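Moderator note: this is an archived Q&A kept for reference. The question asked for a predicted structure of one protein chain; the sequence and the answer are reproduced below.
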Amino acid sequence: MVHWLELDQQTRAYVLVDAPATPRCVILGFHGYAERPAHCLEGLRKAGVEGALLVGPMGQHQFYNREGKVVASWMTKFHREQQVEQILRFVQDILTRIEDQYGALPLFVFGFSQGASTAYRAACLGGRAVRRIFALAGDIPPEVAERLPRLEPVPTTILHGREDQLVPAAPLEADFRRLEGLSWPVEYREFAGGHEYSEEAMALVGSRIERDLA
């Protein structure tokens, strides 16, 4: 008989942190498929939030891209439920470490492309108070969607580039309608540009964070 053996093993995980001298909030940012945390942090810096402690976890599935650089992804369909549980444990460990080092700070969660689904998981299923979710070019994963009616609403900003050739607008618009129908404080914004951390999109992220902090 051919079957899988499932083993629990301790592995190392990595998080890129850009900490100001006096943090006033945490932005937990999840990179897209075949990216690195540095990509996400570079995008988050465009938001221009003074005093933001930027936290960029690295997806736990690392591989080489065609240029030979190490990149990562967040999810596959293989044993999906276990992978979701693993991501949530990873997020809990990250936030505990950040709180131990910097104290309790307002938490914002951001995700780009595949990382947007991870951001929804972290914010909605992670058991932490989140000020706002930012989903750029990515949609709500099914394990979050099915629980939405039972979840406490979290302010959510959905962003999409009008020239995005990789991720169509339709699923993001459907997410907006779903959340709006559940009385979540949600907005959907399109901007000029494609599948990217555009200046316009990230400026909106910054303005929403500043408004929420005020």
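Archived answer notes: The chain has six helices and nine strands.
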